[in-house]
Amino acid sequence: MSKRSQPKWQPPGRSTGPILKLFNSLTRQKEEFIPQNGRHVLWYSCGPTVYDASHMGHARSYISFDILRRVLSDYFGYDVLYVMNITDIDDKIIKRARQNHLYENYVQEGHSLKKNLDDAKSVMEFLGGTVKATADADKKCMLEKLLVRMTGAVEELEVAVKSQDEEKIKKAQEVLLVEAKDPLSEWLDFNCGASVTDNSIFAKLPQHWENQFHEDMDALNVQRPCVLTRVSEYIPEIVTYIERIIENGLAYESNGSVYFDVNGFDSREGHYYAKLVPEAYGDAKSLQEGEGDLCISEDRLNEKRSPNDFALWKRSKAGEPWWDSPWGHGRPGWHIECSVMASVICGDSLDIHTGGVDLKFPHHDNELAQAEAYFDNDNWVRYFLHAGHLTISGCKMSKSLKNFVTIKDALTRHTARQLRIAFLLHSWKDTLDYSNNTMEMAVQYEKLFNEFFLTVKDVTRSSSDRTQISSYQKWEKDELELNKRFIAAKNFVHASLCDNVDTRGALDAVRDLIGNCNIYIRDKTSSTQESNCLLLRDIAAYVTWLLRVFGAISTEECIGFPIAESKGATNTEELVMPYLTIMADFRDNIRGHARQLKATDILRECDRLRDDILPNIGVRLEDREGGPSAVKLMDREFLMREKEAKKTAEAEKAAEKERKKAEQAAIVAQRDAQRKIKPSEMFLSETDKYSQFDVKGVPTHDAEGKELSKGQIKKLQKLQQNQEKKYSEYLQSAVVNGVGDL
Question: Whole-angstrom Cα distance, residue 623 to residue 607?
Fold first, then answer.
């Protein structure tokens, strides 16, 4: 017999599954994501200009990018270096800092009543001129409303002066200063802005708002950047960067400022200006807005060789902070800061650059041009990702129009998790409408997830952490089918995340999977069979992990959302659940005995424990017919809201029941009252309809004395006959019931 040899082995065919694609603004389509250095990703994100409170527009960008970052690093396994800047030198900051300083001084100086009124009238005249010169309809409407409020405040002060009531005058003065704050600050800045010379004034404002921004990001569970850069810390690097662009022949100095030569750059081989929005090339309005409010002057425009050129370095005027440079005292332009700081940290080519869609032109297009002029390349950014706009109940959000919701305000209405789920339910690149409907959908998704986690914990709480023979059950048809759906859901989630990080598609797949689990648990319970604990825990753990990847869960929970009261390293649920289970079992036994004995007082106490006592410590107890009670450890505040909602619903139900009861009683009373009327008297009171009656009380003439037709009289006689039957029944019942006085 010949020696047998091992047969040849054939590897399985390689499956070509979905690959990660991202919507790249540079091509306006989804492109396969290929980092330049293996798994290492260089990512720069435009940070905030810190001159006011962070609002939901900021949340739109930074939560969206946080989700993208977490998916790339925690789901796809990329090593991400995430760099973000803080713009702490900017025309908006300079102007706001000056205005705040001048307004605070004006209030502290405590001017006379006459000066307050005279200045207020000058401010109103100044504001009126601004209204006339404003072309934007929304802004014009906002300024007009401001003018109306200020006019009203001035008139109230004048009325108070005439009354000679010192208390009224003082209060009216205070109201005027509050209502006039914005236009008064503008007026003071216009007249006295050049007198502000202390550089610390311009540093104090951005430091305050940067600190507030970081607090807001922490509250939203947005991961901190790996590197944070501030413009004020990179002035030497910015100056050196500009010098290099000048040496490369693509920038020029003019009257102490330095401008980028757009036409020169665009005409060079290998370079292209306005890659992101080529159709905006030459858009004078957008270019001017990009230069900043403090650079709108004829002198500044005349310094440029072309209207398309933009400032790399701005000569500082009186009332503006400044730094030394080869071109004199000045400060950086807006666009140059990002090019410099991103280049210093990440080098000559970024994998990903992110920012709001409103930054495409001119800011990001100018960034690209500057950096590519510096490095003499054409690929400074490989993938440009832009977060979509955010609207407020369908309307444009704008700080300047006072139509914005701060992050702190939003967090008083909804939790950070609910806000994040709302963002997860929308594409990161499309417009998101922040409205009651949007948030209600997010709340419902959160409730769906939470109830699923609580149900799985309850169903599986009897299973031991130690491996035993009973730990494993045979998979029957139901388990095989559920596992099949589990695998399909994971595949769908993966395909969705590969498709431009489609988190909505991923959450919809999870929602359907939870629905399948709920059906499985229901069917097992109704057939008195045990659910497969291991399979359910695996599914719940996967859903928990995915939500943790998305940033909707911030702790290392095995299953579900963390309990709000949990603090420290101890897992509160694991600690208290054994005791709660003993208590629930004891209550079940007591209720069983009380039912047999018909001891209603004991049953009432058991209900009070369930409905009033346990919710106050964050425990929901659910009675189940024929089985042990479900014990669910939850956030106490959620249970309190749930309890109040239940009370409100019960009160409304009781009120509705009482209303229907009263209606029914009124109908019965009306019917009884109708039965008591003698047939001969039933029409006599209707003098608005009839004027004459026959001997039986049937009308013969209408109210105007006109004789009724035979047909009309016949109908009335029929009605009287029906009443005779009702009256006869009433008399009989009265006799039976012993009613003496008929």
Answer: 10
